[in-house]
Every structure is written in structure tokens, then in C-alpha cells.
Amino acid sequence: MRVISRLFTRIAERYLPDAFIFVFVLTLLVFVLGLFKGYNPIQVVNFWEKGFFDLLTFTAQATMMLVTGFALAHTPLVNRGLKAFAKLPKSEVQVIILTTVVMMVCSWISWGFGLIAGAIVAREMGIVHRGKIHYPLVVAAAYSGFLVWHAGYGGSIPQLIATKGHFLEKQMGVIPVSQTIFAPFTYIIVLALLIIIPLANVMMRPKAGEARISLPESILSEEEHAPAAEISPQAVKGDIPPAVRLENSRWITFILGLLGLFSLIFYFAAGGDLNLNIVILSFLTVGLLLTPNTKEYLNSFMGGSKSAYGIILQFPFYAGIMGMMTQTGLAADIANGFVAISSAKSLPFWSFISGGIINMFVPSGGGQWAVQGPIMIDAAGKIGADMARVSMGVAWGDAWTNMIQPFWTLPMLAIAGLGIRDIMGYTAAITIVSGVVIGLGLLLL
């Protein structure tokens, strides 16, 4: 594992460009493939333009998730708790294992919660154990835990097909989560990953005595010199203006936090499910309740906002790629190609492989299911394959190649203070290991 990770790390450091350049290469590739499909350049450009704005809502959600999570982590109580938690492991091995497992548990609950919680834990591990651990590997270990999100409570595909009225209900009916998320073949794969992935991460650590890369100085400086609430000259003299009193009042944020808290209580009391908006509202609510005053919360919020530029810039370009992939039929061609070589037994496996490939161009579980789902379910009906297993094959494929698709690393890397080249060598190795585990699980269980 150490040799494999070093090979991929050298390749990533030399040849893997910034995540935005990766978006450009994918855009150009899909554009050219669209021309080979028989569409003229103007048509392909129109497909790109129509898709470009399809993820604006999701872009705003991802941005809010990052910023509210960042602000929550910097409230005094949570910040002290994270630092205390980061002190629990006593060795580099324990740091890697604990970080991976925490991310897996949080991602199983909700992918949004997992990305932010995992990034914050990895960051705190880097601060507390600075100089003693290889920080890029710790961040990669956290990201590797993201693998299980689609097999958990927040999995978009299994939750969608368990909902009455979903767009494929006539073809496959409503499939309860007992046949997908909580089916034996799914939780056995999850348990196998829970054991194998942390061990694989541990095996990639540098040898004793070899140099370790620490958390960037900029992150440490940011923690040590966090912006404090400004004190006006009048306040120093004892003459505090009403505006300053309001900015430093505990009651403003507390009342707003109570509003969010009551909203969450009423929502879950009415049987509401955990989703991205609720995760954001939860982060915002707890952050407001725990912050000392409005001024400090705004300062923390600004700190998180600076880290969100990659999401704001790149997500619309991925939406454009998705538009070209779907409108030209390229995604359908990939799925149909794997369907043609499948049997009832092997279709879940080939759904997984094709899902992994399509995810490189359409890195959205819901968007990918809209493209690939109808094809796979139609094939499953014709050859008598288990539709629940086929659906989970697509879901696992979507989660699998996230390890080498920069799209979902953006919020995590923004908090961790690293670039895609820093972790891709390790996550590429995890892609191989997890691919074997998941593939065998879908074939044999």
C-alpha cells in the first residue's frame, strides 16, 4: 500500500492539475465526444449552457453547508470539544484510524454532515498533532470515509426509490430501505469497508523516521489569530453606543437560534427526514445558540466564506458537463454498453462499474440516477435481475469514484487547507482497494 500510494502521489504531484483545470479537461472531452455523436458545435454548446445553471440551488446549499459548519466549529464550546477529541489518539496510527471511522459514521448519517465534520476533525488532528503525523494522509483518510454515504441514511438513490411517487415507480415499484440500505449485502459491504479502509490508510503512512508533512502554517496562523470582535473607541471610554451593544449582545443570536431549534423540533415531530437543508439549518441553529455574540458569529462566517470560492466557481461547470452528457446521450451509451454484457447475476456488478465511470462526468447521485436509473431498471426487468441490488450497484458506483473525482473534495479541502494534489495519491489507492471490496460484495453476496 505504501508503494502504491507513493506511485500515485508522484503521478498526482507531477501531472494532476488544479481541480479547476480538471473541470476544463472534462468539459473539453465531453464537448468533443458530443461532436462524435453527430451533434454540431452550436447544439453541444446549447446543451452546456442549458445545464450550466441546473446546480445553482445545490451550489448555494453546498456553500451554506461549508460556511455554517465552519462557523459552528469555531464556536467556543465546539472548538474546545474538537480539540479535546483530537487529543484522544496517542499515535499516528490511532489518528488515522479514528479520523477514518469518524468520517464513515458521519457520512453514513448524512453526506453533507460527513464532509464538514470529517474535514473539521482532520483539521483539528493536524493542529493538535502537528509535526507528528503526515497531514495529507490524515485528510485523505477522512475523505476515504465518504465511501459509505450512499449506503447510509442520507443515500439519495435508496431514499428516492423508497419514496412513493418517484419517477421510476411504474417500472420498479417502491423499494423499502430494508431491501437496500439495511439489506445484508449492503451492511456486510459497509462493515468490510469499516475494517479494510482504515487499515489500508494506516499501511500508507510514511515509515518511521521519514519526513512528515504538517498542517500548513496558514491554517495554524488562522487558528492562533482568529478575528476578534472590534471594540470601538467609545466602548473603551465606557460610552458604548446602542449599535455596538446590539452587535455584542448574546440575545440576538440566541433568539435566532431558538427559532431554528423550534423549527427543527416541529419538522422531526411531523416525521421529516434528514436532508441537506435540514443539515444546514442544524449547523446554523447550533452555531447561533453557542456563539457568544453576533459580531463573533459574523467573523466566523466570513472565515468560512473565504473557503467556499472553489464550490461557487466549479459546480456550475460540472452542471454544464452533466447537461452535455445527458442531452447528447453519452451517459446512456455508457450504461447501455455495460447492460449488453450483463446477466441477471452480474448486472448489479456492471451497474457499479458503469456508475463509477458515469460519476466522473456526472458527480451527483440524484443526477446520475436520473440518467442511468431508467436504463438499468429496464434491463433488470427484462433479464430478471434484483432491482434493489441493481439500484445499489449504481449507488455504490457513484460513491466509489468520488475518491478520484475532485468535485466532492472541494468543501473538505477548503477547510483542511490543502489542494487536490496533496491527497489524490492516497485516495487513488483507496479507489483500487474499495473497488475490489465493493465489486466482490455485489458479485458474491
Automatic annotation (TrEMBL):
<feature type="transmembrane region" description="Helical">
    <location>
        <begin position="51"/>
        <end position="73"/>
    </location>
</feature>
<feature type="transmembrane region" description="Helical">
    <location>
        <begin position="133"/>
        <end position="153"/>
    </location>
</feature>
<feature type="transmembrane region" description="Helical">
    <location>
        <begin position="20"/>
        <end position="39"/>
    </location>
</feature>
<keyword id="KW-0472">Membrane</keyword>
<dbReference type="InterPro" id="IPR006160">
    <property type="entry name" value="SCFA_transpt_AtoE"/>
</dbReference>
<feature type="transmembrane region" description="Helical">
    <location>
        <begin position="251"/>
        <end position="270"/>
    </location>
</feature>
<feature type="transmembrane region" description="Helical">
    <location>
        <begin position="423"/>
        <end position="444"/>
    </location>
</feature>
<keyword id="KW-1133">Transmembrane helix</keyword>
<dbReference type="Pfam" id="PF02667">
    <property type="entry name" value="SCFA_trans"/>
</dbReference>
<keyword id="KW-0812">Transmembrane</keyword>
<feature type="transmembrane region" description="Helical">
    <location>
        <begin position="93"/>
        <end position="121"/>
    </location>
</feature>
<feature type="transmembrane region" description="Helical">
    <location>
        <begin position="173"/>
        <end position="197"/>
    </location>
</feature>
<protein>
    <submittedName>
        <fullName>TIGR00366 family protein</fullName>
    </submittedName>
</protein>
<feature type="transmembrane region" description="Helical">
    <location>
        <begin position="276"/>
        <end position="292"/>
    </location>
</feature>
